[in-house]
Design a protein that fits this description.
Layout lengths: L6 E7 L7 H11 L3 E12 L4 E6 L2 H14 L4 E4 L5 H11 L7 E3 L14 H11 L5 E2 L3 H7 L8 H10 L4 E4 L8 E8 L2 E9 L8 H14 L4 H17 L19
Parallel strand pairs: 1-2, 1-4, 4-5, 5-6, 6-7
Antiparallel strand pairs: 2-3, 7-8, 8-9
């Protein structure tokens, strides 16, 4: 008799390259032994160099997708990426409010790796107001965490994490890719301060979809019943290995290899 794998539901925008967005979430979740479910929030035109344009779906379409799948399949964890608009943030928050006991990972994708904007100030305010109180773990990079905390560009990361915890996030995992140093330092915070800190060798080049990979891996490990600190450690280890094994199918950034174990 076969066992049903835990299901992880991703709310995210489509990425035609498969490097980031919804496609990256599905690849990551499946590679870690969970069953991926999906709600499309927006369409993008992009390649491995950057995002050309984004078309957000109407909130009603997002709600319809989510309600259909949630009425049919038990979900063990949620993962949120690009939601497309403040109205969509509100629609997703209304749905997740009925699933407050299910872990939720929020990857606040504010811009592409090239810097193309993916969230405006109204969307940031909506995230702070209605989604942070539902968030088990937020996974911003150092640029995003300062913007989300409404802080100065040189604000201390610990202060920013504290602000976001006060806004409702139970944990904040700040990734240090954009900070100087020979190693990338990622730090997990909760209301008590630093929970754990991990250092990873800085890999050459740049990658498309590393944040999506990390957040989706976190959701997969949480769906398997792991506590947040252990899930954070394993998700970082998995993500680093996907980047170490990354490949360059196009003319832009490298893509993580989520199925590196099968090569």
């Amino acid at each position: 008799m076969s066992l049903t794998p835990p299901a992880v539901l991703s709310f995210a925008a489509s990425d035609p390259t498969g490097g980031a967005g919804l496609q990256a979430d599905l690849l990551t979740i499946a590679s870690l032994g969970c069953h991926p479910l999906s709600v499309l929030t927006a369409l993008t035109a992009q390649d491995t160099s950057g995002v050309d344009s984004l078309l957000a779906l109407e909130p009603d379409w997002i709600a319809r997708q989510a309600r259909c799948v949630l009425a049919d399949i038990p979900v063990a964890a949620f993962k949120l990426g690009v939601l497309g608009s403040a109205r969509n943030v509100a629609a997703v928050a209304a749905i997740l409010a009925g699933h407050s006991r299910t872990p939720m990972v929020l990857d606040p994708v504010l811009a592409s790796g090239r810097g193309d904007p993916l969230s405006d100030s109204e969307t940031v305010e909506a995230l702070r107001a209605v989604l942070f109180p539902l968030t088990t773990i937020l996974t911003p990079n150092s640029i995003e965490v300062r913007r989300l905390a409404l802080a100065a560009p040189d604000a201390a990361l610990a202060d920013c994490a504290g602000e976001l915890v006060r806004k409702g996030c139970r944990h904040v995992l700040i990734t240090g890719t954009h900070e100087p140093g020979a190693k990338v330092v990622n730090t997990l915070y909760d209301a008590s301060g630093v929970v754990r800190q991990d250092r990873w060798p800085r890999l050459p080049g740049s990658f498309h979809g590393s944040g999506c990979t990390l957040a989706s891996a976190l959701a997969a490990f949480l769906a398997k019943g792991m506590a947040v600190p252990e899930a954070a450690r394993l998700a970082q280890e998995y993500t680093w290995k996907t980047l170490e094994s990354g490949f360059a199918p196009g003319h832009g950034q490298r893509l993580p290899d989520r199925f590196f174990k099968t090569r």
